[in-house]
Amino acid sequence: MPMSAEAAAAQASGVAAPVLSAHERVIAAVGIAGPTLRFRGKELAQKVALATEIGAQLSMALGRLEGNQANSSSTTKGNMGSREA
Q: Does the pTM exceed 0.85?
């Protein structure tokens, strides 16, 4: 029996990090999504670190200075069906 979209969303989680322009504006985001069971403990910490690092690398490639990282580590984890901070 196929799973409904609502049931699938309840079992999905994700993390995301911003991609910032040289003017400190959010212009994109990089995210990782998957089954909630893979977003716990050490695996969650690794995904947060990876998304944050890739977001920072993309920001620098777009002209953002490396020292301006006040906002680059804001990540969010939560159900994809609801927004949690």
A: no
